[in-house]
Amino acid sequence: MTIRYARSTDLDALDALEQQCFPPVEAATRASFAQRLAVFPEHFWLAEEDGQILACVNGCVSDSPLLQDEMFENAGLHNEQGAWQMLFGVETHPAAQGKGYASALMRRMIADAKAQGRQGVVLTCKQELLDFYRRFGFENEGVSASQHGGAVWYDMRLRF
Fold first, then answer.
1. CA 135 to CA 19: how far, in whole Å?
2. Which end of the chain is flanked by fewer CB atoms within 10 Å, N or C?
3. pTM to 2 decimals?
4. How many CB atoms lie within 10 A of CB 104?
5. How confident is the model at residue 65 (pLDDT cuts 50, 70, 90)?
6. What is the spatial distance between Cα 55 and Cα 6, in angstroms, rounded to a whole number?
């Protein structure tokens, strides 16, 4: 497995992965991915084998202590000097799940965020993923105000 940052040429593969991993009401649009790749490609961590992207972790950086729904669609809210690494998506191709790709990406993203002097990492997740994120030291801060996709989300935070 190779871990690398995204490039603009990854748009097709990232869009396809997103559509496979999230329901349509929650998945980022192709246009949203194009914006993100143009603004913060170094905040996309990709796991690749034999030239195929099998997993991705991505999100902007912000001074906001909470992940806000508007961040998903507005790449202009990225602040490279921000205190918090936000995570929008952690996804693994269905055929590659359970093989450690997402965990490897999470460890790399956390190490990079620490090295960049961030205060920590913020994400929202569904109830069934709480334990996955706790393994990395994230704490559950309760039900999120997020209305993204009409789902119930939980605010999770990892402080450095």
1. 26
2. C
3. 0.94
4. 16
5. very high
6. 11
Radius of gyration of the chain, Cα coordinates, nearest whole angstrom: 14
For residue 31, which amino acid is it?
Answer: A
CA angle 94–45–18, rounded 5-degree value: 40
pLDDT at 151: 87
Instruction: Tell me if residue 39 falls in helix, strand or coil.
Output: helix
Query: What gap in Å lies between CA 46 and CA 43, rounded to an integer?
Result: 10
Q: Which two tokens stand for residue 56?
A: 């991705």
Residue 98 phi/psi, 5° resolution? 80, 10
Rounded CA-CA distance 137/144 in Å is 18
Alpha-carbon distance of 150 to 5, in angstroms, equals 30
Q: Which residues of 83-103 are buried (b: 16+ CB within 10 A; e: fewer)?
A: ebbbbbbbbbbeebeebebbb
pLDDT, tens only, 35-46: 999 999 999 999
Query: Could you give the CA distance from residue 27 to residue 1 in angstroms, rounded to a whole number?
Result: 25
The dihedral sign for the CA sequence 29, 97, 120, 40: negative
Best CA proximity match to 28, nearest among 50, 42, 44, 49: 44
The pair of structure tokens assigned to 147 is: 């209305």
Please report, to the nearest 10 degrees, the dihedral formed by the alpha carbons of residues 125, 126, 129, 133 taken in order.
Answer: 20
Q: How far is Cα of residue 92 from the mean position of the Cα atoms in its chain?
A: 11
